[in-house]
Design brief:
The complex is a heterodimer of chains A (about 220) and B (about 1000). Chain A is built from 10 helices and 1 strand. The longest helix of chain A has 29 residues. Chain A is extended. In chain B, helix 10 links the parallel strand 12 and strand 13. Classes of the chains: A mainly alpha (about 220), B alpha/beta (about 1000).
Chain lengths: ~220, ~1000
C-alpha cells in the first residue's frame, strides 16, 4: 500500500526550499522593518505645542541655525532656544497671533514650552554636536533640508550602521567648515577628492571604538 | 567561612612559621586555610550568587509572571517613546546647555570646612571635586564629601515645617520662635537655650554674639559627639590657654601617631594625608622617605601605612607617652607607672626622634585624654619641633568650650527645670548624648522645644517644632577650615524641601527676622571687607565666591608657653577588665550619614564590613573569650548593656574592644533606622572615648555581618609587593623581579598597535592610605547603584573599584597594605575573547570597552577575568522611580539596568570630553587634562592617569619607575593599570623589624 501520494514528492522537494526562503524572507523582513520609517519614525511629522515652521524661519527669513541652536558649536547638545529667543522678535512681529499664544504664555508664566523631541537617540548613545560641526559635518547631512520642512521631521534612520557609514568613510560626507550651516549646500562632483583633502586638513580620524559613543 | 574557627592561633602561627601559608593574607580564614575560604577564592562569586534565593511569595510569583509576559512583547524591536524637551524660558547667561558648570563651596563637618568645587548640570549638582585653591582640600576630597551629593537627594529628608506633626508655614514658626524669646526678654532671655554643633562660621558666631548681647541670660551650648574636647583641654593644660595645634608634615622625617588616625579623621586630614604622601613618594629618583610609627588600640588607616605599628590599649597610651617622654629626657613630667612596658619599642623610637630634632612630630588623637595631649606638647617642644613641624595658633572655633561639660550643664539645667525654651540647631542630642545624661527624658521637661535638622530624627521626634534644615549644597553660609581660612558656602540648588539654615533661624530670634541667609552672610562680610559697599565690596565678594575662600583669613602662628605639667599629667589609677573603645564610625561618622547608602556600603577600613558596626576583638582575646566572627554578644559596661556582633580584627590590641558610634538608630530615615547596634548606649560622660571594666557575655545567638573581605579575591601570587627602604635602595627593581613575566610575543591574542593615545593608570601602593574616597567618587561619577546588605553578603557589590586589604605577618600585629583594584584594562584582555555578543571589546586607545546595550548577561567575561573586577546587575539595583535620586545621576554615563555586566571604564566620559575639546582646538590632549574620578578624589594623589605613549606624561614616568609592576603579570594580560610597590621605611633597631621583603624569606613579625 502506498503511504504517501505522488504529490508528496513535490512537497518533499519544495518544503526545504520554502523553509530556507521563508526563514530568509522573515529575516530580511525583520531587517527591512527595523530600518523602516515605521520603526525609526523618519518622515514622521511630530505634533508640537507650537506650529513652528523651520521653512518660514530658515528659508523665508534667512535666520542662521545658530541664532536659536546656540550651543551647537560648543556643546554636545545643540540647544533648544529659550522662550526669550522667540520673544526677541515675536514681542513685535505677530505679537497678537493666536498661534503664538503658547509662546507668550510660556514667557508670561515662566514655564517651559514642552517640545517633542524629533531626533531622539537611545539613552545609551552619547552624540556630541560640537565636534561634528567643527570637523565639517553639515547640519543638512544628518537633519536633511530643514529649510524645506514646515514641520520638523527626521530624514535619516539615526541607527548605528548609518552613523558608522560616515565614521568609517568620513570623506564621503565632510564639507568645508564655512559651508556647515548652509542648507542648500550641494557636494561637488568630486566629493571623494575634496573629502580626502578635508579629512587631512581637519585631522579627522575614523573613530569606531564602541566607547566613542557608548559609555 | 562561618563554621570554621579561625581562632586556632597556635595552628595559624605554626603555619606562618613554616611559611607554608601565604606571605600576604587577607583574613584569618585564609591563614587557617579553611575549606570555605578555598572555595570562595576560586569562585567568581560566592555560592548562590547567581541564584534567586529569596523565598518566592505568591505575590512575587505573579509579579514576575506578569512582568515576563509584558516584557516578552516589548523587547528590542520597539519604537522609542516620545521624549519631551523643556528649554529655559530665560536662559542664564553663563550657561551652555549640555555643559556642566563648577561652583566653589565648602562642606562643613563637625564645624570645620573643606573647600569644594561642585559640578552642576543645568542647576543640578551631581559631583563633588576638591578645590585646588583651598588649603585643606588641595584638590582632594574624602568619602564624606563625595557621598554628600546623595545626602542632598536623600528621599527621606524631612520636607515640611511641623508643629506637633502638623504642617505649618515658615511665618508661623517665626512668630512662635520670636514669641518664645520675647516672652523672656524682661529676664534677659533666662530660660532660653541654644544647642548647636561646633561652630567656626564667622557669621553664625557674630549672630550668636549679637543674640547673647541682646539677651544676656540666654545660654549657648555646643555638642559634637566626635568633638575635639580633649585636644582643647590638652592645650589648656599645657599652655594655660586654648590654642590650636597644626602639624606640618612636609618637613617631618619621623612621625609618631599616638592613637591618632590623622590621615583619615579630623578637619585637617586631607592636607595631612597629602603632606604625608609627598614625604613618601619614591618617584623621580627619590630614595628618602619619612617614617611613621603608630601606636593605637584599633587598626586605623594611619596604622595600615605605618612603618612600625604597636597595638596598645587606648588607656595604656598615656603610660606609653610618659615612658617615651622619660626616654627622651623631657623635663617636668611624672614617671610612668610601668617604665618597663614596651621598652623594646620606646628606646629605639626615642633614639630615632632624637636623631631628627626639629624634623619629627608626635601627633595625639582627639580621642586621647587631655593629659596625653599635654605630654605630646611637651615632647614636641623638647624635640624642637615647635615652629617647624608643629605650629600653634589661636583657636579656629568661635567659642572653644568643653562640649561635654556644656552638654552636661544643659542636661542638668533641664532636669532642674531651668530650661524653658530650647533651640536645637543641626544637632541630634537625643541620639548622640552620653547615655548617663538621659537627654531624651530630660528634654521632655523643657516647655518649648525647637529643632532644626535634615531628618525627622530621634531629636525631632521629641520636639514640638521641627524645621527642615537646608543641606550645605542648598545653603548660604560660611565656615572656617582647620587652618582658619574662611570659606563661603554658596548654594548649588534652591532648597529641595524648603529647608532653612541656622542663619535664618538665629536671625528670626534676633534683629534679622525675615532676612535670607544670603543677605545675612553678605552683610557680615561686607562689614569686614569693605564697609562702604559698592564696587569695592562687590569685586571682593565675587572673587571670594569664585575662589571659594576669603584670602588672608588663615590663623597666624603664635608663640605659646609650656606650663610646668608635673603631676597634672600623671596616669590615672589603673582599672581592671576589658577595655571598651568608642570611635566615630569610619563611614557613617557619628550617625549623621547613617541614611546615606553610599557610605553604608563603602567597606570600612580593615574589617571591610558594610551596613553594620561590630565589636572589634583581637584574635588572642577572641580565643581567650571563645568568640568567633558574627557571634552575638552582650556588652555590659557600668550597668548598661547592648547586644553586638563580634568581628575578629588582626592588629586590635589585646583585651581592648572597639565599638563604632553611629549605628542602631531608631529614626532618621529608612536606611538609618535599623542596621547595627547603638554604642552610644554604653557611652557615658565619665568615659567618652575609652575605659576599662567592660564585660562580654555570649548570647548563644549569631548575627550575620556583610563583609566584603573574602570577596572578589585574587589567588595567591605576589599581588601586593613590598620591601624595606634598605632593600629598595639595594635592589630598586625588586617588585618586578618577584614574578616572572613571559615574553610579550608569547600570546595567542591578536597584536594591536596603539599609535595615538594609550590610556593608562598607575596606583602607588606606597602612598595609598586605603581611605575609600576613590570608591565613593567612582560611585558618584558612574551612577553605581547600591545593593544592600543581603546582596553584599552574596558577593554582588557593584563597586567598580574596590580597595583590597592585605596583611603580612603575625595576626596579632600584622603589617597591612591597601590595594585599590579597578579594571586593569588589559591589552590582552581575557574577558573580551569569551563574550558571545561582542559586548566587551577593545578600543583603539587601549580601553577595554563595555557595551551595555549588547550585553545579554552570560557572565562569561567575569568568569574569565583574573582580577575579578567585573560586576553584574543580578537584580534591578538602580532606583528608577524616586524623583530626587534621578537628579543625582551623572547625565554623561548610562544608567544600567538588570542583567547587564559593568565595570570600570577609566571614566571614558571624561576622556571623550577632553578629546572633543582638544580636537576643536586642534591640539593633542594635554597631560593632566583627563583625570578620572578616583584620581581626582584621591587625598594622596596615589592614582595617576594619562597617556602612556606620551613619554613626558606623569603616568609614563611612573611606568618607567623601578617600583612599577603589573598585577598577575605572569598571565601576560599586559594590564594598563599598574602598581608602584610599597616600601616601608623600617627602623632596623625596632623589635621584630622586618628584615626581608623578598618573596622567599619570611619574617613572622615579633
Amino acid at each position: 500500500m502506498q503511504t504517501f501520494r505522488r504529490s508528496a514528492n513535490t512537497v518533499f522537494v519544495v518544503s526545504p526550499v520554502a523553509l530556507v526562503l521563508g526563514v530568509g524572507g522573515l529575516i530580511a523582513l525583520a531587517y527591512a522593518l527595523q530600518g523602516s520609517p515605521y520603526v525609526t519614525r523618519a518622515f514622521d511629522e511630530r505634533e508640537q505645542p507650537v506650529q513652528f515652521s523651520h521653512e518660514r524661519h530658515v528659508a523665508g527669513n534667512g535666520i542662521d541655525c545658530r541664532y536659536c541652536h546656540t550651543s551647537v558649536e560648543t556643546s554636545a547638545f545643540a540647544g533648544i532656544p529659550p522662550t526669550k529667543t522667540c520673544m526677541n522678535c515675536h514681542s513685535q512681529i505677530f505679537a497678537d497671533s493666536p498661534f503664538l499664544e503658547p509662546v507668550r504664555a510660556s514667557f508670561r508664566d515662566d514655564r517651559s514650552i514642552a517640545w517633542t523631541r524629533v531626533h531622539d537617540l537611545p539613552d545609551f548613545v552619547y552624540f556630541d554636536h560640537s565636534i561634528h560641526v567643527n570637523k565639517g559635518v553639515g547640519c543638512s547631512t544628518c537633519h536633511g533640508r530643514v529649510d524645506l520642512m514646515p514641520l520638523m521631521f527626521q530624514v535619516e534612520t539615526l541607527q548605528m550602521n548609518w552613523c558608522l557609514d560616515c565614521h568609517r568613510n568620513p570623506e564621503k560626507y565632510v564639507r568645508p567648515r564655512d559651508q556647515v550651516f548652509r542648507m542648500d549646500y550641494q557636494p561637488p562632483a568630486d566629493q571623494i577628492s575634496l573629502g580626502r583633502k578635508l579629512v587631512a586638513d581637519y585631522n579627522i580620524r575614523s573613530l569606531t571604538s564602541c566607547s566613542t559613543c557608548h559609555r | 567561612m562561618n563554621d570554621a574557627t579561625p581562632n586556632d592561633l597556635a595552628a595559624i602561627r605554626a603555619r606562618l612559621e613554616q611559611a607554608r601559608g601565604p606571605e600576604y593574607w587577607r583574613s584569618l580564614e585564609e591563614l587557617a586555610g579553611t575549606p570555605a575560604f578555598q572555595e570562595a577564592l576560586h569562585r567568581e562569586f560566592p555560592q548562590g550568587a547567581s541564584e534567586l534565593t529569596d523565598p518566592v511569595s505568591r505575590r512575587t510569583l505573579l509579579k514576575l509572571m506578569g512582568a515576563s509576559l509584558a516584557l516578552a512583547g516589548i523587547t528590542a524591536c520597539t519604537r522609542q517613546p516620545a521624549e519631551k524637551i523643556y528649554p529655559y524660558v530665560r536662559q542664564p547667561e553663563e550657561l551652555v546647555p549640555g555643559r556642566p558648570l563648577f561652583f566653589a563651596t565648602a562642606m562643613p563637618l563637625d564645624g570645620y570646612g573643606t573647600g569644594l568645587l561642585v559640578e552642576s548640570h543645568e542647576g543640578r549638582p551631581t559631583k563633588v571635586e576638591g578645590n585646588p585653591e583651598h588649603p585643606v582640600s588641595r584638590g582632594s576630597t574624602d568619602a564624606f564629601a563625595q557621598a554628600s551629593i546623595l545626602g542632598l537627594y536623600d528621599p527621606d529628608r524631612s520636607t515640611a515645617i511641623t508643629y506637633l506633626g502638623e504642617i505649618r508655614p515658615w511665618g508661623a514658626f517665626l512668630t512662635a520662635a520670636k514669641a518664645a524669646v520675647e516672652a523672656r526678654r524682661a529676664r534677659g532671655g533666662a530660660g532660653v537655650r541654644l544647642l548647636t554643633g561646633t561652630i567656626t562660621s564667622p557669621t553664625l558666631g557674630e549672630q550668636i554674639r549679637a543674640l547673647t548681647a541682646e539677651f544676656p541670660e540666654l545660654r549657648w551650648h555646643q555638642w559634637d559627639p566626635a568633638g575635639r574636647d580633649q585636644a582643647r583641654a590638652g592645650a589648656a593644660l599645657a599652655f594655660g590657654e586654648i590654642a590650636e595645634t597644626h602639624y606640618q608634615l612636609g618637613q617631618a622625617a619621623v612621625i609618631l601617631a599616638l592613637d591618632a588616625d590623622f590621615l583619615a579623621c579630623g578637619p585637617a586630614s586631607l592636607r595631612l594625608a597629602r603632606e604625608f604622601a609627598d614625604g613618601r613618594r619614591l618617584t623621580g629618583g627619590r630614595r628618602e622617605m619619612n617614617r611613621l610609627y603608630a601606636v593605637e588600640p584599633s587598626p586605623t588607616l594611619t596604622g595600615s601605612v605605618a612603618d612600625h605599628r604597636l597595638p596598645v590599649p587606648a588607656t595604656a597610651i598615656h603610660g606609653f607617652a610618659l615612658a617615651l617622654a622619660a626616654a627622651l629626657g623631657v623635663p617636668g613630667l611624672p614617671q610612668p607607672r610601668d617604665a618597663s612596658a614596651h621598652a623594646g619599642w620606646i628606646v629605639p623610637l626615642a633614639r630615632d626622634l632624637q636623631a631628627h630634632r626639629g624634623r619629627s612630630v608626635v601627633i595625639v588623637g582627639d580621642e586621647q585624654p587631655a593629659a596625653v595631649h599635654a605630654v605630646a606638647h611637651a615632647i614636641n617642644e623638647a624635640l624642637g619641633n615647635v615652629g617647624t613641624t608643629v605650629v600653634y595658633t589661636d583657636p579656629v572655633e568661635v567659642s572653644p568650650v568643653d562640649q561635654l561639660a556644656s552638654l552636661s550643664e544643659l542636661a542638668a539645667d533641664m532636669e532642674a527645670g531651668l530650661v524653658e525654651t530650647l533651640f536645637i540647631l543641626g544637632s541630634n542630642p537625643v541620639y548622640t548624648a552620653p547615655a548617663d545624661l538621659e537627654f531624651g527624658r530630660r528634654l521632655e521637661k523643657v516647655k518649648q522645644r525647637f529643632h532644626l535638622g535634615q531628618h525627622l530624627d530621634e531629636t525631632a521626634a521629641l520636639c514640638q517644632w521641627h524645621v527642615p534644615e537646608a543641606h550645605y549644597l542648598e545653603s548660604w553660609g560660611d565656615v572656617r577650615a582647620a587652618d582658619g581660612t574662611a570659606s563661603l558656602i554658596q548654594p548649588l540648588i534652591a532648597p529641595l524641601h524648603g529647608g532653612r539654615t541656622a542663619h535664618e533661624v538665629l536671625g528670626a530670634l534676633g534683629q534679622q527676622a525675615g532676612q535670607s541667609a544670603h543677605s545675612i552672610v553678605r552683610a557680615y562680610w561686607q562689614a569686614r571687607l569693605a564697609p562702604e559697599g559698592g564696587p569695592a565690596f562687590e569685586g571682593q565678594w565675587r572673587r571670594a565666591l569664585h575662589d571659594g575662600l576669603i584670602p588672608g583669613t588663615a590663623a597666624t602662628a603664635r608663640a605659646v608657653k609650656l606650663a610646668v605639667l608635673g603631676d597634672r599629667v600623671a596616669e590615672p589609677p589603673p582599672r581592671q577588665g576589658l577595655e571598651i573603645v568608642f570611635r566615630a564610625d569610619p563611614t557613617v561618622h557619628d550617625g549623621r550619614f547613617a541614611n546615606n547608602p553610599w557610605l553604608q556600603e563603602l567597606p570600612k577600613p580593615h574589617t571591610k564590613l558594610t551596613w553594620d558596626n561590630a565589636a572589634l576583638v583581637s584574635p588572642s582575646t577572641a580565643a581567650r573569650l571563645g568568640l568567633a566572627n558574627e557571634d552575638l554578644v552582650e556588652l555590659r559596661y557600668r550597668g548598661r548593656r547592648v547586644e553586638a556582633p563580634v568581628w575578629v580584627v588582626p592588629g586590635q590590641a589585646a583585651d581592648s574592644i572597639t565599638v563604632h558610634l553611629g549605628y542602631g538608630r531608631e529614626r532618621g530615615g529608612r536606611i538609618a533606622a535599623g542596621p547595627g547596634f547603638d554604642a552610644y548606649r554604653l557611652r557615658t560622660t565619665s568615659a567618652p572615648w575609652a575605659e576599662r571594666g567592660l564585660e562580654v557575655a555570649q548570647t548563644g545567638r549569631r548575627y550575620r555581618l556583610a563583609s566584603a573581605q573574602n570577596q572578589q579575591m585574587i589567588d595567591a601570587r605576589p599581588v601586593v609587593r613590598s620591601a624595606t627602604l634598605e632593600e629598595f635602595r639595594r635592589q630598586p627593581g625588586f617588585a618586578r623581579e618577584m614574578a616572572h613575566e613571559p615574553p610579550r610575543t608569547l600570546t595567542l591574542y591578536p597584536e594591536q598597535e596603539y599609535k595615538g593615545y594609550a590610556w593608562a593608570m598607575t596606583i602607588d601602593l606606597n602612598t595609598c592610605i586605603g581611605c575609600g574616597a576613590c570608591v565613593a567618587a567612582c560611585n558618584a561619577e558612574n551612577n553605581i547603584p547600591v545593593v544592600g546588605k543581603t546582596e553584599v553578603s552574596r558577593g554582588r557589590r557593584m563597586h567598580w573599584l574596590r580597595v583590597d586589604r592585605y596583611y603580612r605577618g603575625d595576626p596579632e600585629n600584622p603589617e597591612a597594605f591597601n590595594q585599590p583594584v579597578p579594571c586593569m584594562h588589559c591589552e590582552k584582555a581575557p574577558c573580551e575573547v569569551v563574550c558571545p555578543t561582542a559586548a566587551t571589546v577593545h578600543s583603539a586607545e587601549g580601553l577595554n570597552d563595555m557595551v551595555y546595550n549588547r550585553c545579554v548577561g552570560t557572565r562569561y567575561c567575569s568568569n574569565n577575568c583574573p582580577y575579578k573586577v567585573r560586576r553584574f546587575n543580578f537584580l534591578l539595583y538602580q532606583d528608577w522611580n524616586t524623583p530626587t535620586l534621578k537628579m543625582a545621576r551623572n547625565p554623561d554615563v548610562t544608567v544600567r539596568s538588570r542583567g547587564v555586566m559593568e565595570k570600570c571604564t577609566y571614566c571614558v566620559q571624561r576622556i571623550n570630553q577632553a578629546r572633543v575639546e582638544a580636537e576643536k582646538e586642534g591640539r593633542p590632549i594635554r597631560d593632566g587634562e583627563v583625570v578620572t574620578a578616583c584620581a581626582a578624589a584621591c587625598p594622596t594623589k596615589a592614582i595617576v592617569f594619562g597617556d602612556q605613549n606620551d613619554a613626558a606624561s606623569a603616568v609614563a614616568k611612573n611606568k618607567a619607575e623601578p617600583l612599577n609592576y603589573s598585577l598577575l603579570g605572569d598571565l601576560n594580560t599586559r594590564p594598563r593599570t599598574t602598581y608602584l610597590a610599597a616600601v616601608r621605611n623600617v627602623n632596623p633597631e625596632m623589635p621584630g623589624a622586618r628584615a626581608g621583603g623578598g618573596d622567599d624569606h619570611h619574617e613572622a613579625g615579633r
